[in-house]
Task: inverse folding
């Protein structure tokens, strides 16, 4: 580990030898190339002192340091042998990859026949490019190697699904704020990341995870080592994705194919430039916001009809036009008034009586574009004439502004508890008592088997979980028609209990409950009836069809 000072070691409860501890500290400089030999000697001394030894006679095992795809040699993995001896011709599994060792190359670039513990070598012969950090193991036969690779692949797929569920794919109360108001879809940005090595790809993913994703979620369609291919371009075109390459030079055929499909390929040599461009692309998906830019305020001192009455107030000495149009004579108190800007007229205690544009501004006989603080002028509005003395004019500009990810994070912050409370509308105590009694009756009917229909059995089960009781309770439910069984726990949102019973059928109902659009009990009933009709799984339309009947029941 690298530390800048002995104080950094103390933070980890490591005391340097020079301070009376037992932790050796070696100063090095990669820029000057000093201290490297001392570091190697210190490592060898610590290994000898602690008797760090490995069995060199067993089957080889170790870790992947780096891996990449070579055009001529195929998948190339840099391995660190930690136990046993790796030889040419061995059959190995490496993460989700496997293969036979065709050649081994040492750190000097020379081919070797074997590599013992603590030796780093480049291996050629795997059927795919492994990930940096994957563990490799030598096997006695090809079947064992394939089984180990398949098991590792299943683990990687499970981890990928779990990662997707934690990056915005699951619909939860807190993710409701990330739905676009215009399209009702979650703002996503699809990425295809290709790099020269797998370690670089993982480093890019780790760096991008540091970007705020409350409003725009990054979705990795493909992350792999190797050159950018036409298949990557086709995937980007089909998903409106962005192709990002690091330390790569795409072929002319790939570039022309991307140009024909309208896909932009971005390649980088510096990771900071990559992060900045991805962040800018994410901000481009955010909706623009309108902000008020205050200009000034003014107070109405007199009101007169243009062309109908002689001016007796010094603020206006010109005619705004013929007809019965009324004009306000004002004094600018703060800032300035600007023609064409927006204005808000307040009367009394901040009562807004008009909002619109400043149609005209005049001083003496001249039409002016703006009037500064302390000056008098006449203000006219085309569609409003109900001026009164004492009205206050607030002049402002409406500025369209692009959001930044940090600003969008603050704007989309949602209090989940208050959002949940909107869906759980309070009912009078008497109505709650009636509902509780009805739930108990339905539950008793379910136990006795008197409910003949599947929807009645499911409705009784779900309603029992929807009762708003303070104690927790569990009940084993059986659904022969759906082939499901689950143990339900007390839930404050009945639609969530419905989701546990009927799986995906109640997901839409749960979402509506969270948004406060449905009452909880009818939503749960609709999901139950829809599931009964669909055999345990149904679509959103089926849930909607049963909603009206659920309202009647409750």
Result:
């Amino acid at each position: 580990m690298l530390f800048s000072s002995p104080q950094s070691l103390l933070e980890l409860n490591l005391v340097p030898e020079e301070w009376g501890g037992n932790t050796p500290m070696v100063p090095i400089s990669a820029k000057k190339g000093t201290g490297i030999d001392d570091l190697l000697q210190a490592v060898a001394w610590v290994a000898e002192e602690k008797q760090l030894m490995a069995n060199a006679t067993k089957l080889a095992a170790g870790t992947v340091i780096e891996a990449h795809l070579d055009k001529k040699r195929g998948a190339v993995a840099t391995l660190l042998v930690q136990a046993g001896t790796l030889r040419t011709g061995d059959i190995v599994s490496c993460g989700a990859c496997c293969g036979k060792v065709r050649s081994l190359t040492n750190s000097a670039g020379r081919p070797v026949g074997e590599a013992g513990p603590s030796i780093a070598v480049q291996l050629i012969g795997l059927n795919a490019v492994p990930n940096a950090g994957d563990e490799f193991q030598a096997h006695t036969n090809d079947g064992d190697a394939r089984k180990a690779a398949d098991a590792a692949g299943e683990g990687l797929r499970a981890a990928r699904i779990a990662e997707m569920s934690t990056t915005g794919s699951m619909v939860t109360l807190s993710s409701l704020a990330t739905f676009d108001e215009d399209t009702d879809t979650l703002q996503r940005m699809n990425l295809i990341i290709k790099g020269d090595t797998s370690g670089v790809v993982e480093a890019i993913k780790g760096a991008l995870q540091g970007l705020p994703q409350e409003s725009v979620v990054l979705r990795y369609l493909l992350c792999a080592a190797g050159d950018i291919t036409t298949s990557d371009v086709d995937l980007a075109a089909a998903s409106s994705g962005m192709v990002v390459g690091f330390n790569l030079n795409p072929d002319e055929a790939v570039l022309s194919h991307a140009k024909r499909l309208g896909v932009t390929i971005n390649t980088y040599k510096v990771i900071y430039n990559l992060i900045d461009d991805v962040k800018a692309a994410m901000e481009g998906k955010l909706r623009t916001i309108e902000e008020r830019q205050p200009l000034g305020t003014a107070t109405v001192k007199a009101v007169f009809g243009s062309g109908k009455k002689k001016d007796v107030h010094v603020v206006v000495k010109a005619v705004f036009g013929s007809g019965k149009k009324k004009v306000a004579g004002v004094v600018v108190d703060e800032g300035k008034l600007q023609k064409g800007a927006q204005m808000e007229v307040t009367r009394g205690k901040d009562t807004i009586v008009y909002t619109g544009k400043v149609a005209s501004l005049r001083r003496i006989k001249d039409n002016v574009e703006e009037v500064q603080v302390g000056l008098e002028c006449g203000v006219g509005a085309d569609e409003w004439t109900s001026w009164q003395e004492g009205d206050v004019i607030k002049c402002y500009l409406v500025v369209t502004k692009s959001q930044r990810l940090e600003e969008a994070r603050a704007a989309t912050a949602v209090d989940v508890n208050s959002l949940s409370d909107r869906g759980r509308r309070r009912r009078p105590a008497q109505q709650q008592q009636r509902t509780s009694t009805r739930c108990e009756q339905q539950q008793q009917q379910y136990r006795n088997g008197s409910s003949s229909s599947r929807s009645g059995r499911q409705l009784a089960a779900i309603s029992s979980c929807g009762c708003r009781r303070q104690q927790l309770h569990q009940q084993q439910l059986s659904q022969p028609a759906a082939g499901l069984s689950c143990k339900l726990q007390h839930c404050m949102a009945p639609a969530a209990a419905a989701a546990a019973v009927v799986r995906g059928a109640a997901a839409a109902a749960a979402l509506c409950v969270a948004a406060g659009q449905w009452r909880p009990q009818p939503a749960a009933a609709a999901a139950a009836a829809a599931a009964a009709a669909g055999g345990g799984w149904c679509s959103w339309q089926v849930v909607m069809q049963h909603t009206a009947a659920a309202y009647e029941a409750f």
User: Anything to note?
Assistant: The radius of gyration is 36 Å. Residues 152 and 185 are 34 Å apart (CA to CA). The chain is about 35% helix and 30% strand.
